[in-house]
Amino acid sequence: MPTIDDFHAWPDAHGRFGNYGGIYVAETLMAPLAELTEAYLRLRDDPAFIAELDRDLKHYVGRPSPIYHAERLSQHVGGARILFKREDLNHTGAHKINNTVGQALVARSMGKTRIIAETGAGQHGVASATVAARLGLKCVVYMGAVDIERQKINVYRMKLLGAEVVPVTSGSKTLKDALNEAMRDWVTNVADTFYIIGTVAGPHPYPLMVRDFNAIVGREARGQMLEQYGRLPDVLTACVGGGSNAIGLFHAFLNDRDVRIVGAEAAGEGIATGHHAASLAAGRPGVLHGNRTYVLCDDNGQITETHSISAGLDYPGVGPEHAFLKDAGRADYVGVTDEEAMEAFHLLARTEGILAALESSHAVAQAIKLAREYPKDGIVLCNLSGRGDKDVHTIAAREGVEV
Amino acid sequence: MSRIDRRFAALKASGRTGLIPFVTAGDPSPEHAVTLMHVLVDAGADLIELGVPFSDPMADGPVIQHASERAIAKSVGLADVLGWVTAFRQRDAETPVVLMGYLNPVEIHGYARFAQEAVQAGVDGVLLVDCPLEESAVLQPLRDAGLQQILLAAPTTEPSRMAQLCGSAEGFLYYVSFAGITGAAHLSTGDIAARMADIRTHAKAPVAVGFGIRDAASARAIADFADAVVIGSALVERLAGAEDAEEITVRARAFLVPIRAALDAH
């Protein structure tokens, strides 16, 4: 078993991060998951695969993304320097493409001809439809009916890219139900279908694979910090729904014990109201979507409906590696309300000319709070995981503006 | 010998194929949940699979998803299900009851507490769909208390793993007849027969076949090579919306009696 001292050694061979992770699926999926694990672990060390992935990330995604010192925002806040890792500048507008480019190459290598995906905010759906179009694969995206309504632009983008978007009307009609439905599709069509999970959840090897493909964010940022600032940041922050952009930024820094790590979960209308999606801050260990992790559920074990203004954070579970980091005391997870995220969205827009995604606005709000805790020469590095174009209608509606 | 083992031994001795109906506990009506269990036995059930409602039934098709949603909307939880088994046992000490569901409700209830309460209620086994053999260490308190862990085997199961599953099976092995979700309809008896021959070389436990069995004809076809057949979605669909005890009784009997007859004529 890996030691607690080396955070880069996890998960173990069975996909466990301490007490979390694992493979909690029906028997029918055990063989496909074993096949995927075998294929991924082989490709992960294959120089040809690595070279192709690097080429795609450079020439198709547009990596590396810069780190940007938000001087006017930092001045306005009056604390430490706030730096953004600009994942919003990637092709398709978010970090999600890092993962889908990687998984699409795995899918092609395994001879699969059909891609399925679940999506909440639609960014992962768009990123999946994008790579499927590029590789000539059929693509079906499952999306909760509620999310389809609040993310219309991304639904249309997926259709323009040639994907079929299937509305999910079971349960709470949001991301968790879309994941259930995608899993049902996969178990039925496993021979020709590759399931691209969009976050660091699901059964092993997904939390490992999705983290690996997003870890480029932190690797780049760590190098950029040393090169441009000659030091590491004092603190990292990122928003956490399933947790893929957050683990992407955090992972390269996990063994740098002097770098503090804070994840920002969606506190919705406030954790005390019960209308939130803060699984780590307010949930308990349970089993959902193939892994053991922190979940939001009632005393009967029923997963509870979550609330967040941002569809991408509206998820009652969280990646098992985050659960592990929380219990190990390596990262803290705190709630940011809808209101705080909206304020941060506007402040960033007016001081820096950047429209952040509502998901990322939670991280911006947390970065602002953290900046106040440090002196002016301190550095807060925040993952600006996506751009806000997709959210313009949601924001207008919330503020009573007709667009 | 457990109640499940005794039941399968009796079936074997009389040359009959077992009939295992699945119903979602609390659907169509929490008030008549115990009545429904007795009706199932009267209509020919050899063992009852009682589904514990869960909000995120990843392996289930729309019929059982909706049944779960209806039961949860009426606040049905694990404690209710255990209460119904307790009540059922007052009149029926012989018919084995297996709880089928997902891990989270048991995890949240607490494994040790669940084990004790389930045994006390008269539950004989558990089939936790999302808890494969590899993760079943958490179920040790259940085994210690005497609950049998029913394992699934699937068409996708590798041969080496099949031997392992057969070796670990308690009570009976549940063979999922096709790769898919509950309630789908692509039963291929040829494929099942071929795989069952392989399972028989390893399995000491009896083998039940489920998924896709909807009526007397499909049940009889499966009976050629199974020790028992499991019928879930088709029954749940038939019962949906039945409002009183009489209607539940009429519908359950109309559905199960012909299947029982077909199995016995086999």
In short:
The complex is a heterodimer of chains A (403) and B (266). Chain A is of the alpha/beta class and 403 residues long. Chain A has helices spanning 30-44, 47-61, 71-77, 96-109, 123-135, 145-150, 152-160, 175-188, 206-214, 216-229, 244-250, 279-282, 320-328, 338-352, 358-371, 392-398; strands at residues 16-17, 20-21, 67-69, 81-86, 114-119, 138-144, 164-168, 193-196, 235-240, 260-268, 284-288, 291-295, 332-337, 379-384.
Offer a few descriptive terms.
heterodimer, A: 403 residues, alpha/beta, 6-stranded mixed β-sheet, 4-stranded parallel β-sheet, 16 helices, 14 strands, B: 266 residues, 9-stranded parallel β-sheet, 12 helices, 9 strands, globular
What is the element layout, followed by pairings?
The complex is a heterodimer of chains A (403) and B (266).
Chain A: E1 16-17, E2 20-21, H1 30-44, H2 47-61, E3 67-69, H3 71-77, E4 81-86, H4 96-109, E5 114-119, H5 123-135, E6 138-144, H6 145-150, H7 152-160, E7 164-168, H8 175-188, E8 193-196, H9 206-214, H10 216-229, E9 235-240, H11 244-250, E10 260-268, H12 279-282, E11 284-288, E12 291-295, H13 320-328, E13 332-337, H14 338-352, H15 358-371, E14 379-384, H16 392-398
Parallel strand pairs in A: 4-14, 5-6, 5-8, 6-7, 9-10, 9-14, 10-13
Antiparallel strand pairs in A: 1-2, 3-4, 11-12
Chain B: H1 3-14, E1 18-24, H2 33-42, E2 48-51, H3 62-73, H4 78-89, E3 97-101, H5 103-109, H6 111-121, E4 125-128, H7 140-145, E5 148-149, E6 151-153, H8 159-168, E7 173-176, H9 189-202, E8 207-210, H10 216-223, E9 228-231, H11 233-239, H12 245-264
